[in-house]
Amino acid sequence: MPIIGRAGARKPGARRSIWIMWLRRVVFAWLIPAAFVLPVWLLVGWAVFDAGGWAFLWVLFLAIPSVFLGQLILSLLVRARGTVRAERAVSWWDVGGFALWHVSIVSLGFFDPAWWAPVMVLALFVAAGLFWLELWQLWREARPAAVYFRTDPSAVPGAATTRGRPGESTGVDQDVFVIAESGETPGDHGSRG
User: Fold this and answer.
1) Phi then psi dihedrals of residue 174, to 5 deg
2) Is the pLDDT confidence value at 187 over 90?
3) What is the pLDDT of residues 24-41, one digit of tens each?
4) Residue 145 burial (10 A CB sphere; 0-12, 13-18, 19+)
5) pLDDT over threshold 70, residue 140
6) How far is the C-alpha of 37 from the C-alpha of 31, rounded, in Å?
């Protein structure tokens, strides 16, 4: 006798998949606030870690505008995809890319001279890679999966169809022409000897 499960019982992987979708939705919700929070973190990091005057100029004129605009542009590219708007959740590629970029920006805010320059280069490369990743995902979703062409049979010369009852004439000559290669007649069909 088969065992019947309780009504409303969850599948073993249901809790895991709910958590995974929750994580993707949290990243989706974080994208716009990140455009404001990350630049502020760079300014706060400069003040807390006493980075100096040149670092302040870098933060004020380069880092804050570029992180703000870059995050907004990337967020809009993500939100332009239909699947993201429908699910209100980003893809796993987005989760990984934004996590790497945001961690590199946060680590820049500590202004440690021992590893600041390599992290800066890493952040620039990750931002460029994330931009191309978002364009690739947008293009992949926006392109048509298949292209169908429809033609009106009456518009194609020699492609007349009979509409109506069988045996009814359409007024178009429906002769069949056979074009044979030189030396063959239509009755030969490859019987060369």
Assistant:
1) -110, 45
2) no
3) 999 999 999 999 999 999
4) exposed
5) yes
6) 10
